[in-house]
Amino acid sequence: MTDNSSDSTLALATVEREGLRPPRNRFVEAWSGLSRSKIAVASLVFIILVLLMGAFAPLLQTNDPFAGGKDALLPPLSGEHLLGTDHLGRDIWSQLVNGARVSLMVGFSVAAAATVIGIIVGALAGFYGGWIDSLLMRITEFFQTLPRLVLALIIVALFGSSVTMLIGVIAILSWPQTARVVRTGFMSLRSVAFVDAARVSGMPRTAIIFREILPNVLASVVVIASLDVGAAILTEASLSFFGLGDPNLVSWGGMLQQAQQYLAQAWWMAVFPGVAIALIVLAFNILGDGLNDALNPRLKERA
Amino acid sequence: MHRKQKAFRGWPFRAVLAGATALALTLTACSGGEVKNSDEVATGGNMVTVIGADPETLNPGLTTSNDTAFIVAQVFEGLVKIDADGLPQPELAEEWNISDDGKTYTFTLRNDVTWHDGESFTSADVKWSFETGLENNARAQTALKEVADIETPDDRTVVVTLTTPQAAFLTQMKVFDTPIMPKHVFEGTDLATNPANQAPIGTGPFAFDSWDHGSAVTLKKYDGYWREDQPYLDAVTFSVMSDAAQRTIALQTGEADFVGAFYLARADVAALEKNPDIVVRKQTTIPSLHFMQMNEENEVLANKEVRQAIAMAIDRERIVDQAMSGLGIPGKGSFGNGFPWLYNEDVSYDKLYPLDPAKAKTKLEDAGVSAGTTLRLTYDASKVQFQAASAIIKDNLKQIGIDVVLEPMEASVYKDAVYTNRDYDLALQSFTSSGDPAIGYHRIYVSTPTREVNKNATGYSNPKVDELLEEAASVADIDTRGELYKQAQAILNEDVPTLILFDELQADAVGANVEGFFAGINPMDQWAGVHFKK
Amino acid sequence: MRQAEIALFIAKRMLSALPLLLGVVVVNFLLIQLAPGDPITVLVGDNPVSEEYLNQIRAEFGLDKPVWEQLWIYVVQILHGNLGTSYSRHQPVTELLLDRAGNTLKLTLTAILLATVVGGLLGVLAARFRGRPIDAGTQTVTLLGFSVPEFWLGQILILLFAVNLQWLPSGGAYSIRTGDAGFFATLNYLILPAVALSFRYVALISRMTRASLLEVSNADFVTAARARGLSDGGILRRHTLKNAAPPVITVIGYNFGFILGGSVMIETVFSWPGIGRLLYESIGSRDYPVLIGILLVISVTVVIANLITDIVHMLIDPRVGQKA
Predict the structure, then answer these.
(1) Mutation choice for A interface testing from B314, B387, B414 by most A CBs within 10 A
(2) Does residue A71 lie in a domain region?
(3) I need a surface site. Which of A47, A281, B448, C61 has the fewest CB within 10 A?
(4) What is the domain-level CATH number for residue A168?
């Protein structure tokens, strides 16, 4: 879950108020809107680069990230170790490129899972209304209230730190935002505006659903999903920092956990993975903002 | 230890003199031997040390927590204290006699000892402590588990009768295991709520002064202490500092004078050693072993050749270096290096399993183990040193073709998995000897057909070894015991059911202006001789 | 009539908070029960002990009763303010929490204050000088604020100010000689952790402030005021700031849970002796009663914070009260 509550509020408002618009190709619209912002495009490129880096990690690494040796705590630019070594003599650069895999995988998995759950819950709540809506909204509110990081920490501490568990826990705490947006969208199905529009325009209801409501909802969902990826990466890093990551994988958060003990002796252990995390999350945030601007242009005018 | 030898070429006389002085200084600094001459030391002063958390009580009968034990060691005393060679010396007991069958111990107590409230110390206090006072103290219960009967024929004599001879009984009569508590303060009261829990009364060199909860406990010099002229210090303050980094900083800024081994972060030792105002003492205190159990239910590990190959592949030196910041002695044999009198050099790991990954790999292939075999390495997630050690082991074994999957587990889950269910392949563990191999180390190797927690989970069972260890636990003569252990090592080092990784070395740090620490098996005691330099 | 409306709203809100609280308690309890392993064996450590001693401890901690009874006992105890006893410290959990709550409050309140002042300032400047470098600069800071891991920022601040420049201490809340001697004596320990914790919220608040200022400045009454000849500064002072304040307050309120989560990370990095640090230590020792107790306290705090924020929000912005 992100802190961009202001954005989602505005997004919500738009979906609520904007009811119907003339049909147009959303993809083209999104791309043209996005490409107008150079920095959004740059972020997209960066994300793709990092994805490639993760995918080709075994080729890019200079050493096995788990293989250490006597050369511990070497500073950057020491012989073959571009970014230095850690306290067990393991190459930082190799750990960095491999860590990308875990971070991105967790990020995308969480976003996907959270989106799916959110869509289901939101659709049911919005479509059926009544007591189903009340109940689901109560549950949503409940999950939103639970302190996310604290709960995640405790659950992983109690039940084990495999990657699957991490993804599951973070996803369960991330779906409320998506659910809300989807719900609002589906609620409009039962609204007076919708019925009127169907009657007046002569379009069958399904057409309106598929041409107007769904695309609108999806637009906001995509924005939230993008921001979710960034937030999930941060949460995974936090969990790993607490020593709750999977030790069989290299992760940026795990690198930072080990760096804590050696801050005074080996600054490179902390700086590089942290910068990596900051940049990738930044990229997703910018992308999310960019998509928001592109898909919901009316919001941009207000700002 | 500090090296102070200098080379004086061409000045033989001076060299000898300088060398002798240096040697003398070195010996004093290293052993922190007791200073007997009181007019050579500066009396007075308040020594500040640190503990990790506010103790929940200062009643040793209720807890074994380190924060309490640290303070208790100055306020209370035991029947004996342990010297630098691991042998018991008189403390509250002036002398003792052990019967021929090893089952009856007769202690003669000092008659000049008083409690901090003025009452006299008598044998009744010892009897009461052993029978009632220490009921809830786990360490004491271990020490006293074979006690059948306690008699006090007079105020100065205590006769303890055991059901079977216990070689290590005497070494457990120290303040860390069985502190003697005042009967007259506790008898008839509810132990849990007695006000003496907040303001303890003991016989030790320091009496309770004040307790600022969450902040500090202060002790003051007890004028009626039985050791002449001691204690030298006026007061001792235990400051509560929950974070290890803070404790190190406190030492460096001079805010704390002494940080005990339990409270000193390993990673900080290297930096502290470079500081000229601080003296770092490395010693084995109460020896403990860190080892890796290998489950013989796993058919790969059931093969002795495989276990030996693994022993050859694991870089124990690197583990000590990187996982323990150098604070350990790489594994030398089945009982480690902490008890010199039992160490068998002929069959040591150095001889049998020198680091040789190539040879280990060949050995594995000969044993029919295919490359890429997977083994799980399980450990208690809360033990920081295992995080690094397991990563190194994973690295080492990868080189000989074994893929290791790391499985950190929460402590009780770990115990279930390893001991109750024997659902593991390789498991990291550490055991303290509790002062004697018979107390803490036998459990690593004895046959354990019924699955008990914290006892041999490898499935290894060798009747000859069982026999040797049982005898070593009952015989009191140290030479005989040493022989028995050496024979056991000859078998165990060869079979290597459990690979000993290292002996833990503990380091404590003290300001260079404080002297007189006693480097015994447990440096928690004997601050009576501590003083500031003039 | 408005009074009644308000009162009704408050009552409804409070009522709807009850099931949330109950849900939190049940979740907490479930976590205790579902957690694997036998907590007893954790207590005793590596010392070899007898079976009787283990049973004794088991009885003391009430671990041998059936589940339903344990839940009931748990709820009753919570209502009495008893959160159980820490396994590793043998202290009542409530006592442990109360000891540390003050420190956490000190840190979070300072961070909120910092975030409000700095964030508000940046937001105002960005709105005022929209399109100019300072606007872009603020936007960058904002984006960074949401992207940088909080604990890493702490580590970097330590590297820079404590290790390298040695201007500020790298951890702890106070030095042992002076003790916890009041606010100003320990100020230098507070600076780095508060800055690290506040960064994300500086970003959030500056963005909010900027957005709402711009929104307001487009409003009719501002145009009218401009037409009357009021300067931008005057408009700023009289109208826009008043309107910008409410969203900031509500944003802080709704984000209180995240701020507490952030303080867990910051307290760990800086060894700040608060509840967050206690959580970290208890995770390490798997001290269940403390973990569950902290979860409960923080969840309840968040529920209450949300409740208060809802009410405040409604009072400030009456339009909200009418929506579902």
Answers:
(1) B387
(2) no
(3) C61
(4) 1.10.3720.10
Q: Do the domain assignments include residue A20?
A: no
DSSP-based three-state secondary structure for C187: helix
Q: At residue B282, what are phi and psi to the nearest 5 degrees? A: -110, 125
Do residues B122 and B155 lie in contact, with contact meaning Cβ atoms separated by under 8 Å? yes
Half-sphere exposure of C138 (CA within 13 A, CB side): 27
**Same-domain check for residues B38 and B65:** yes
C159 in contact with chain A, both atoms CB, cutoff 8 A: yes
Q: Is residue A11 in some structural domain?
A: no
Placement of tokens 């165990």 in the chain: B492
**Can you read off the two tokens belonging to residue C277?**
């640090």
Residue A1, in any domain of the structure: no
Contact status of B249 with chain C (Cβ, < 8 Å): yes
Half-sphere exposure of C153 (CA within 13 A, CB side): 23
Is B274 found in the same domain as B318? no
Same domain for B151 and B225, yes or no, is yes
Q: Are the Cβ atoms of C147 and A243 closer than 8 angstroms?
A: no
Predicted interface score ipTM higher than 0.90: no
Digit-coded pLDDT (tens) for A160-212: 777 888 888 889 888 888 888 888 877 776 676 666 766 676 767 666 666 66
Residues B275 and B302 in one domain: no
Q: How many A-B residue pairs are in contact by the CB < 8 A criterion?
A: 41
- How many domains is chain B built from? 2
The whole-angstrom separation of Cα B211 and Cα A67 is 50
Distance CA A260, CA B137 (A): 36
The count of domains in chain A is 1
Print the domain residue range for A228.
26-62+80-302
The residue length of chain C stands at 324
> How do strand B506-511 and strand B258-259 relate by DSSP bridges?
antiparallel
Residues B357 and B370 in one domain: yes
User: Mean pLDDT per segment of 10 residues, for chain B of length 534 residues?
Assistant: 36 43 40 44 86 86 85 92 81 92 92 93 94 88 90 93 89 90 90 86 93 88 89 90 79 86 83 88 83 94 94 94 90 90 91 93 91 92 88 94 90 86 95 87 92 90 94 87 93 94 89 78 70 79
> Of the candidates B193, B196, B177, which has an alpha carbon nearest to the alpha carbon of residue B185?
B196
Q: How many CB atoms lie within 10 A of CB C307?
A: 19
- Measured CA distances, B512 to B234, B262, B272, B508 (Å): 19, 20, 12, 12
Which DSSP symbol is given to B2? -
Phi and psi at B378, nearest 5°, equal -105, 140
Rounded to whole angstroms, the Cα distance separating B51 from B216 reads 9
What sign does the dihedral C72-C75-C77-C79 (CA atoms) show? negative
Residue B308: other Cβ atoms inside 10 A: 21
Q: Are residues B39 and B85 in the same domain?
A: yes
Q: Where residue B350 sits, what CATH number does that domain have?
A: 3.10.105.10
Q: Which residue has the tokens 């590297």?
A: C159
CB B169 within 8 A of CB B152: no
Give CA–CA dist C78/C81, Å, rounded: 5
Smallest CA-to-CA distance from B305 within B253, B266, B361 is with B361
Q: Does domain C93-323 have CATH number 1.10.3720.10?
A: yes
Which are the contacts of B518, defined by CB distance < 8 A and separation ≥ 6?
A: B32, B33, B34, B525, B526, B529
In chain C, where are the structural domains located? 93-323
Are the Cβ atoms of B388 and A88 closer than 8 angstroms? yes
Contact C314, C320 (CB under 8 A): yes
User: d(Cα A206, Cα A223) in Å, to the nearest integer?
Assistant: 24
- Residue B179 and residue B327 in one domain: no
Q: Which amino acid is at A235?
A: T
**Maximum Cα–Cα distance across chain C:** 88
A134-193 residues touching C, CB cutoff 8 A = 138, 141-142, 145-151, 153-155, 157-159
Q: Name chain A contacts of C250, Cβ cutoff 8 Å.
A: none
Q: Determine contact: B215 vs chain C, CB below 8 A.
A: yes
